[in-house]
Amino acid sequence: MAYEGGGSILPLKMLDKCIGQKVWLILRDDREFCGVLKGHDEYFNMVLQEVKEYELVENQRILTTRHSILLNGANILMIVPGSEPDYDS
Amino acid sequence: MAYEGGGSILPLKMLDKCIGQKVWLILRDDREFCGVLKGHDEYFNMVLQEVKEYELVENQRILTTRHSILLNGANILMIVPGSEPDYDS
Amino acid sequence: MAYEGGGSILPLKMLDKCIGQKVWLILRDDREFCGVLKGHDEYFNMVLQEVKEYELVENQRILTTRHSILLNGANILMIVPGSEPDYDS
Amino acid sequence: MAYEGGGSILPLKMLDKCIGQKVWLILRDDREFCGVLKGHDEYFNMVLQEVKEYELVENQRILTTRHSILLNGANILMIVPGSEPDYDS
Amino acid sequence: MAYEGGGSILPLKMLDKCIGQKVWLILRDDREFCGVLKGHDEYFNMVLQEVKEYELVENQRILTTRHSILLNGANILMIVPGSEPDYDS
Amino acid sequence: MAYEGGGSILPLKMLDKCIGQKVWLILRDDREFCGVLKGHDEYFNMVLQEVKEYELVENQRILTTRHSILLNGANILMIVPGSEPDYDS
Amino acid sequence: MAYEGGGSILPLKMLDKCIGQKVWLILRDDREFCGVLKGHDEYFNMVLQEVKEYELVENQRILTTRHSILLNGANILMIVPGSEPDYDS
Fold first, then answer.
1. Would you state the CATH architecture of domain C21-81?
2. CA D9 to chain CA centroid, nearest Å
3. Which fold, G11-80?
4. Most CB atoms within 10 A, among C28, C85, D2, D87?
5. Is a pLDDT exceeding 90 seen at residue E47?
6. What is the mean pLDDT of residues F7-27?
7. pLDDT tens-digit series, residues D43-54
8. Mean of pLDDT values over B69-75
9. How many CB atoms lie within 10 A of CB G27?
């Protein structure tokens, strides 16, 4: 049996639990995405729908909305399940 | 059985669904490509046709059109299926 | 039998011992996280709860609290088990 | 059976079709090569003949010609089959 | 039999010999750690105890002491077994 | 049978043909090496003899000669078989 | 049989021949090490003894001597067998 990890909530299992829910993704270059997680693979590549993309351009936070995207997992720093930033409020 | 991922739309399955359709690719260095997806492999290497390439050079967006290209998947940040940027309008 | 390593406390075994306890994570880009370790895999990807995130922005240490996160292990420089920074005191 | 990819033109199959033809390669650092593709492997390492190398040096495009080269595939951003840049015209 | 290397002291065997002893680790970004090696794996991930961390901040060498840490092996430039820097003297 | 590649001159086969001959190597950081190829492995790690190393230092091309070297293949951008730069003329 | 490479002196075989002899290592960041090679593995991780480390700091070459070190092979640019720099003369 390959080594799976330790603890009660394994990383990929946590992602499985987020399927169909909102996730907030923060990338290494500070780009942020928020959307409903539709699917993922073992490399944290992710399919999101109803997507909001936040990008800092000259200290301005630019919002772009997209219907759905496939995001390359290699650039993801952190995934915050079940929540989104309050930049729009 | 190797672990495939979780959710209703797995990343590679989503790419399969884009075959023959327009995809909009955004790279890590902010280059953007838009074209018809003809084929892909598991590393997100992609064959595109009727390709528009957008590159920001000194704040000017330069458009280059190409018949077909093979794009190295390692540089892809995000894939936006079935859509394209409206920079030309 | 695959080579596991040497010594009385193997890295992954140490992580196993931290399950349910506070860990302080320092990333390569100097971001710091502190939270209860709920799970991890062999690549140091980690599920944390009751999370404090410290980020240096123009020499100011910004604190963000989050309920739970999944952190990509590739960016982790160091894990300090059972402790947290005293920036709040 | 290992996963090969999706679509009518798989990336490596496209390269196979370019054997004996001109290809135009654009690297991540903006260097460009154009030559006849004589062979390749699965990592996009390529053997080119009748090679033109274009390099931007202080906004000047420098052309170097070489009989044949072996190019490391890891630096390739994009391959444009059957065409070449019109910098010489 | 997988290739193990050559010579009388193989890298991982050397690490094995350092178990329970002081090691001085120099990272690629010039951070330095010194502590007792409690365990390691094949990727040079290391468990250290009685740890001194030296970091150069604006030409000042800052010392931080920690009870124990798990250090990601990917950032290690060099391991100096059985010795420590004399910055404190 | 593992996939080997396509075309009449596969990359590693081309290297095999260069054994005993002069090769000119250009690295990603613009360092250049020229010497007789004595051996190589599948990662483009190379053993060269009668070696000339060219390095640009403040726009000056510095030549260093060495009897033999082992060069790490990961930094190689391009291999030009059977030729050398004419910087000395 | 796994592919080993081509030529009369394979890279790892060359390292084997250096066991017990002086080697001069030049890293990607221009740090240099010179010492007696005691052992190595397939990733060019190396155990050196009687080590001289040369580091350029503000155009000054700083020499540090160490009894023995384990050097991470990933940062090595080039290995010059059986020789050392003449910086001390």
1. Roll (2.30)
2. 17
3. SH3 type barrels. (2.30.30)
4. C28
5. yes
6. 95
7. 999 999 999 999
8. 97
9. 20
User: Do residue C44 and residue E12 have CB atoms under 8 angstroms apart?
Assistant: no
Burial class for D55, CB neighbours closer than 10 Å (0-12, 13-18, 19+): middle
Residue F1 has pLDDT above 60, yes or no: no
Cβ–Cβ contact F64 with G under 8 A: no
Q: What share of chain C is helix, strand, coil (3-state, %, to 5)?
A: 10, 55, 35
**CATH class assigned to E33-82:** mainly beta
- CB contact (8 A) between residue C14 and residue E47: yes
SS3 (DSSP) at E70: strand
Instruction: Choose the mutation target among G41, G51, G56 for the interface with E, i.e. most E CBs under 10 Å.
Output: G41
Range list of H helices, chain E: 11-18
pLDDT for F89 equals 60
Nearest CB to F45; choose among G8, G11, G28: G11
Give yes or no for a contact between D85 and D54, defined as CB atoms under 8 angstroms apart.
yes
Instruction: Give yes or no for residue E88 having a pLDDT over 90.
Output: no
- Fold for the domain defined by D20-81: SH3 type barrels. (2.30.30)
Q: Is the pLDDT of residue C89 over 70?
A: no
Per-residue pLDDT tens digits for B56-69: 988 899 999 999 99
Helix (H, G, I), strand (E, B) or coil at A64: strand
What CATH number should be reported for the domain whose range is F11-79? Answer: 2.30.30.100
Residue that is written with structure tokens 């080993």 in the block: G4
* CATH number at A21-80: 2.30.30.100
ipTM score of complex: 0.90
Quote the pLDDT of residue C1.
Answer: 58
- Give the distance from CA B35 to its chain's centroid: 7
How would residue B70 be classed by pLDDT, with cut points 50, 70 and 90?
very high
Cα pseudo-dihedral F57, F58, F61, F63, rounded to 10: -30
Identify the DSSP state of C19.
Answer: T
The residues spanned by each domain of chain G are: 11-80
Mean pLDDT of chain G: 93
Question: Is residue G50's pLDDT more than 60?
Answer: yes
Q: Which residue has the tokens 């709920």?
A: C38
- Spatial distance between the Cα atoms of A51 and A69, rounded to a whole number of angstroms: 7
Size of interface C-E (CB pairs under 8 A): 71
Q: Which residues of A touch C42 (CB under 8 A)?
A: 3, 5
Is residue C25's pLDDT more than 80?
A: yes
Distance CA A76, CA A44 (A): 8
